[in-house]
Design a protein that fits this description.
By secondary structure, the protein is α/β, with parallel strands linked by helices. It is built from 13 helices and 13 strands.
Length: about 400
Amino acid sequence: MDNDLAPDKRPFTVSEVTQAIKAVLERGFRSVRVEGEVSNVRPASSGHVYFSLKDDASSLSAVLFRNRRNTLDFELADGDQVVLSGSLSVYPPRGSYQIIVEHIEKSGEGQILRMLDERKRRLAGEGLFDADKKQPLPTFPRRVAVITSPTGAAVRDVLHVMKRRAAGVDVCIVPTPVQGEAAAAGIVEGLQQANRHTLGDVIILTRGGGSIEDLLAFSEESVVRAVAASSIPVISAVGHEIDVALCDYAADYRAPTPSAAAEVVCASREELFGTVVNLGHSIVRAFLDKRDRARLTIRRFSTDELERSLRYILQPGQQRLDEAIQGLSHHMNERIQNAGYRIRVSKATIEAADPAHILRRGYAIVRNQDEEILSTADRARRTAAFTIDFHDGRIGPIPNKDGAES
């Protein structure tokens, strides 16, 4: 762009200046990471989120499009300290520049997560999290060692559940800080004491929920190694269900909450009683089933049963014989009826062809002297005399005058 300010030069339009700035910004800031405080969050009906990122002296407009917003694992709110990754762009209608956000994470949390992920991979590579190294939990522990803060909510939850579900189990509280600089060393010492003095048949390592920074002590390498080295089975119950610490992977069992950890190690008397009762019912049912099967076996050799069995054997043959007799009788009846019908038809045919029958209907037979039947008028004219047979007798011979003349 020509920056000569001579009055004879054509002035730039606002759009031209804006487009030039846009091109410079988008070429020079294709990828940028910015840290600051979120303010003026404005979700749009389209699903996009518009907000500002500020520090003590400046403010930067930002937009988080819907497809990127759906990847967030937290709700963006005013006051959040975040690190944004994206590109700078200019919005021409207002002539303002903004950052188009591609990735967003809470300030400080991203570094912690990357550090924990690297530590997790390294310790997993050493085999500390291998499944074949996990110890089975005791079914009915007589004593439980609880490593936690003696004043926290976690210990109260554990004791409440233990009292309700297994009042006869001894609980040994191993006090330790669960947050802060001294927490990791205290947890390691508690684990070592529990193993050294066999303070329980199982260990519950626990604390209540908190931020990722609050739970860092349970992800310290020293704590993870101490959990993995414990000769007593360890249950990790750190935070709430969504919270994860590296000691969870090294522990023999991971419980989502302190209360859940207590429930795992304490089988209630009601459950044990129910198991015994169910087993007793199963034994009774098995005995009754065997008795019923024996009765059925014996019943098969009784007189009634043998007679019934014989009937089952004979009945098919008898039924087939009855069906054969019935079929033969039906076939013979059909043959007789057919023969009778044919006889009646033949009789009718014969009767219809009987000359006497024909004569009764008014017909007559004309014969010559030689008793030959005259079937034509020509032959009748040539005969000297003829006779006529009626059904009730004959007349003639009758002289044939025409025949005599001929």
